[in-house]
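SEVERITY: medium
COMPONENT: batch folding queue
REPORTER: lab tech (J.R.)

DESCRIPTION
The queue accepted two submissions in a row. Attaching both inputs and their returned structure tokens so the on-call engineer can compare them side by side.

ATTACHMENT 1
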Amino acid sequence: MDYTHEIKEYLKRDIEAVMSVDTEQINDAICAITSAGDRGATVWVMGNGGSAATASHFVCDFSNGVYYSPNGNRYNFRCLSDNTPIFTAIANDHSYDDVFLRQIKDLLRPDDLVIAISGSGNSENIIKAAEYAKSVGTPVIGVTGYDGGRLKELSDYKMHVPVNDMQIAEDIHMIFDHMIMKILCNTDKR
């Protein structure tokens, strides 16, 4: 079999998606992340499925890659998808719609930051956690695809990929993570 045509078509769609993102909005999100690091805030990251893997990757890159904010504080990223026992206990005992909300309820502070990743922007468990964050005054970065859904509307900062394809959106979400890491690593003088 020869898949070169399909490979080229997929990569073409990835490139088109990358070129369609709003760099000013991404810059604003990066500034929100560095500001959270500078003030010692916790950055709570969440996602489902492939977006959960991206959320974990954000935490890895900011716990071992970037490590320090511009003023020298260590980044404090926490992934709400990583603790399988608590995740499944909440889903089993309460509701899958509450798996993120119950982890941040009464712990989230107004000076923290939430990074909510949802390809569709409509995952109910993500929306409930984002709404709670907004109710306590915590800013939200929405990382979305498609039309951004409800998450894009709720978000203070948007890292949106306007593409109607989950895999392409997830590809670009990982690019966001690595791009931010590389940008901030280049500004870290340690």
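ATTACHMENT 2
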Amino acid sequence: MLSYIWPIALVVLSNIVYQICSKSVPGDLNPFASLTVTYLVGAMASAVLYHLFTRGGNLVKEYAHLNWAPFVLGFVIVGLEVGFIFAYRVGWQVSAASVVQSGFLAISLLAVGALVYHEPLTASKLIGIVLCIIGLIFINR
């Protein structure tokens, strides 16, 4: 059970700190300059963690297994980061921005799951979509 829960707990905890950091980027700092530091730290942390958790591994040899996804993910992550930084700069509250995007994301990913991955779109998922929309209406009032 713990192996099922800990990854989501890590995502939640990381997302809390992520939102606090995104809201705390100084207003007079160019967001892209900020992200250069963010990704340098992320690259170093990833390399250290690779070596800690992969005894005898060769990071350069791992790169032979790359496909398109990590490259596109790099661009997409920049979009996520900059989107949140600008959302906070124009006045979104930390208590609302993440919840609103998560609601829209949940609805969108249900559609992606059904259309691209042929995941079933059940009655309970459709009810969840309706509840998400109702929640979004209440949060934005």
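NOTES FROM REPORTER
The radius of gyration is 18 Å.
No errors were logged for either attachment.
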